[in-house]
């Protein structure tokens, strides 16, 4: 298996950056577009477990657009073959000093393009010395 083929890595990185821009600007249409429209798509959030595209869409539609700005750090995107990737990043918000968010996404290439099929978001106290 080829890992991190340059063209595939560039494609997924562009989609990840598109996701990040949509997240901080609350562009719900783009966020909805980037998740796979499938009942098996899931997102484990900070305070919610969302099963299926419909629940993820409903969460995004109801979410407050306030306080979404964040800074990412230590982003790692790894591609496996031409059709699968994992994107992981840390994030920091000014509104939660001393805390670090962690986000992981599994991306799969479908005929309609790259889509997130699973996502996990959590926040912890920032580990000392890291």
Automatic annotation (TrEMBL):
Pfam families: AtzH-like. InterPro entries: AtzH-like, NTF2-like_dom_sf. This is DUF4440 domain-containing protein.
